[in-house]
Amino acid sequence: MTQLKNDTFLRALLKEPVEYTPIWMMRQAGRYLPEYRATRARAGSFMGLCTSPDYATEVTLQPLERFPLDAAILFSDILTVPDAMGLGLYFAEGEGPKFERPLRDETAIRALSVPALDKLQYVFDAVSSIRKALDGRVPLIGFSGSPFTLACYMIEGGGSDDFRNVKAMLYSRPELLHHILAVNAQTVTDYLNAQIDAGAQAVQIFDTWGGALSHAAYKEFSLAYMQRIVAGLKREADGRRVPVIVFTKNGGQWLEEIAAIGADCVGLDWTTDIGLARARVGDKVALQGNFDPNALFGSPAAIEAEAGRILTAYGQGSGHVFNLGHGISQHADPEHAAALVVAVHRLSRPFHQ
Ligand code: CP3
Fold it and tell me: What keywords sit in the KW lines (predicted)?
């Protein structure tokens, strides 16, 4: 195995000393980059990018060519998993992801089962191909959706403002939702372990919609299933720990509980003060975040000031991976993203002396 040339990201996740605060950006490969749009046009579609290891490798590396980022993230989507379960994923132009066969009746739900992992072989091939292309430059992050976030799309059949079908099931037929979540948790565990086998050096669970649940429901329907996954993951590869990051958007009120499920790092959106968050989780976990992605619409000077504010709020020492609090907007200016990466590297050095 090639030696890692820059392992700052992995060290920060384990709260080991670093020289500066590492940074990567959620959705760092995406439509805000003209080179991404050009590759996507050649591939014909978004899924064309995901299913071709060559294209997936090309777009994964694009942001790293532009910015001195400290990690790469597999180019794929969380919805490849329900697609492999037979729900029929498609992207309607301008409408986001949709499923041909959403889970709406009991028969379909009872028939849901853990899919054969070879249906996702294209993802594992992409991971191996990206690792080879990175040649040890920075670590590669693998990822999956959380069982609950996947269930939201599987039940609603696409994006939703109110999750009315999910909530109807949660409150009137909770056992059906628990069945879906149990299948998802087992599938995600196998899927992430296969990504680790293929070369992923850290993994992140995206719980984008857990924050839409009530206080009690979050623990029962989202957190408990992420805990199951974390307990089932391989935590070492090539003699090195494979850190796990758990990110619940709008999960700021549950930080202590999230920090207790066994992950190495908790992701924060931009609504929580990272200094207070650090005090709440103590030494248990590292923290990732938490720059408002839409602050990239401000001037480079404002971006720098905001980055400095977050670094100061976290304070001295390791255990912080700088990131956006959610995915970068397709309307973001790549020059502004560059200003953020450079500012984080420069301004963070005094916090590691
Ligand atoms: O971070 C990265 O660079 C890795 C790639 C990545 C994508 N999706 C690529 C993508 C990751 C980690 C995801 C995760 C994902 N996908 C999540 C969880 C994180 C989050 O953002 O909340 C969710 C909920 C999805 C589902 C999904 N996929 C939606 C809602 C959409 C449409 C959103 C939009 O911006 O239009 C997608 C499509 C998608 N996934 C795109 C990209 C780059 C845009 C596709 C295109 O090129 O048109």
Answer: Cytoplasm, Decarboxylase, Lyase, Porphyrin biosynthesis
The whole-angstrom separation of Cα 336 and Cα 96 is 26
- Tell me the backbone φ, ψ of residue 306, rounded to 5 degrees: -70, -40
Hey, which residues does 241 pair with through a beta bridge? Answer: 236
Q: Is position 27 annotated as part of the catalytic site?
A: yes
58: enclosing H helix or E strand: helix 53-66
pLDDT in tens, 109-167: 999 999 999 999 999 999 999 999 999 999 999 999 999 999 999 999 999 999 999 99
- Is 208 annotated as a binding-site member? yes
- Of 277, 250, 253, which Cα lies nearest the Cα of 146? 250
pTM summary value: 0.97
Distance 96 CA to ligand 1 centre (A): 9
Q: Which fold has domain 8-352?
A: TIM Barrel (3.20.20)
Sign of CA dihedral 12, 309, 339, 24: positive
| ipTM tops 0.90 | yes
- Is residue 31 part of the annotated active site? The answer reads yes
* Three state DSSP letters for 181-248: HHHHHHHHHHHHHHHHHHCCCEEEEEECCHHHCCHHHHHHHHHHHHHHHHHHCCCEECCEECCEEEEE
Element (H, E) at 92: strand 89-92
77 is in an annotated binding site: yes
Domain spans of the chain? 8-352
At residue 307, the 3 state secondary structure works out as: helix
Does 31 carry a binding-site annotation? Answer: yes
Provide φ and ψ at 124, rounded to 5°.
-65, -35
